[in-house]
Design goal:
The chain is α+β, with helices and mostly antiparallel strands and about 120 residues long. Helix content is about 35%, strand content about 15%. It has a four-stranded mixed beta sheet with strand order 2-1-3-4. A hairpin with a 2-residue loop joins β3 (about 95-100) and β4. The longest helix is centred in the N-terminal third of the chain and has 13 residues, at about 15-25.
């Protein structure tokens, strides 16, 4: 694999920091995107979901208090994706992409499949 590696993460997240450490130790070049500073678009989130080969709800942090407060489980996917973009705490993290493959790195060791 020689495709560019990108990690979508939140710097204060412990799983993100652990995944970043694995990437650093790998010696591979990668780009880090803090999606709180550089927000995802609807198109980018849907692209990540497709590369993960999961449903949109599989990358939803259902246990977040905000998820319960907003009633996200009853929303259509069209509405939910916009709510997730507006509220990045609702997106599972970190997500690492390499080419047309991606991994949700919970646990952080999941990133090794892309190295």
């Amino acid at each position: 694999m020689s495709e560019k590696i990108t990690i979508y993460q939140k710097p204060t997240c412990s799983k993100c920091r652990a995944t970043l450490a694995i990437l650093d130790d790998s010696g591979k070049e990668f780009e880090s995107v803090n999606y709180y500073e550089t927000p995802l678009t609807v198109e980018k989130l849907l692209e990540l979901v497709q590369k993960l080969n999961v449903s949109l709800r599989d990358v939803l942090r259902k246990d977040e208090p905000l998820a319960r407060e907003l009633g996200v489980m009853t929303m259509s996917d069209e509405v939910l994706v916009k709510v997730m973009i507006d509220n990045p705490d609702l997106i599972q993290r970190p997500i690492v992409v390499r080419g047309d493959k991606a991994a949700l790195c919970r646990p952080p060791e999941n990133v090794k499949a892309l190295l």
